[in-house]
Amino acid sequence: MPADPHTLLVWMVPLLALTGLVAGVLAGLLGVGGGIVIVPALYYVFDNLGIEPGLRMHLAVGTSLATIIPTSLRSARAHHQRGAVDVGLLRAWGIPMLAGATAGAWVATLVSAATLTLVFATVAFVVALHMGFSRRQWRLAAAVPRGAIAWPLAGSIGAVSAVMGIGGGSLSVPVLSLCGVPMHRAVGTAAAFGIVISIPAVLAFLVAGHGAVSLPPFSVGYVNLLGLALIVPMTLLAAPLGARLAHAASQPALRRAFATFLALTALRMLRDAVAGA
Fold it and tell me: Which residues contact 59 (CB under 8 A, 6 or more apart)?
């Protein structure tokens, strides 16, 4: 970390605000969850700011999870008002997803930065492949599994999402879609999943990072409050702009372009993880 904390702070403000702006535009433009954009953006922001390598990914994941709480609450409420949240599925998957998120977040705070980066990059690369090549008619099942048989699936989505610092939309939306759930209902239900995943995960990152040395200014544990304060409003302001732009562009072409960008970002993070292992 740079010796002068004031210089660090001067650079943090515009870079974190820009992160929220980009995440918001892409969320509105492509319908992707903010975390899949915010985590790699924060990873490279903290890298350019000179934050210690052992802290960068934990800070990126913890801060991203914190931004998901208010955005998921707002999004889930809006979708619920339109009848796009499957409340029954939320009840059926909620407990195993909560348990998975809690366990996943705690494991994430214990592993090395290289391991955390490796997990994010690997799953992000798979998400990129799905975005680039999936077809709407693809199906894994005729209906969404419920009951005890669905617990491993819901728990795994919660755990992996918490480890990655995402709200679950990048994983649960494709899963629900492949089980025949209409896209608008899958997105609305995934927004509610984001609340279930992010709250316990943030608590784990706050507690586990308590007392860590060389954290950037305004950090509580592995959550940077300045990032939270700047990213959330910028994301909420920019998302409508992205939505308007989406109507003027080809969605398949945009998704392929973002998939390519995400894949390249994931590969670079994989390289960093291997180098830092």
Answer: 42, 46, 51, 209, 215, 216, 219, 222, 223, 224
How is 228-272 classified by DSSP, letter by letter? Answer: HHHHHHHHHHHHHHHHHHHTTS-HHHHHHHHHHHHHHHHHHHHHH
pLDDT in tens, 203-228: 999 999 998 888 888 999 999 999 99
- Domain tally for the chain? 1
C-alpha 185 chain-centroid distance? 19
The pTM of the whole model exceeds 0.85: yes
How far apart (Å, rounded) are the C-alpha atoms in residues 233 and 236? 5
Residue given tokens 């990873």 in the structure block: 43
Could you give the angle at the alpha carbon of 156 between the alpha carbons of 154 and 158, nearest 5°?
Answer: 70
Instruction: Give the lowest-confidence range in 61-65, 182-186, 241-245.
Output: 241-245
- Residue 87 structural domain: 5-276
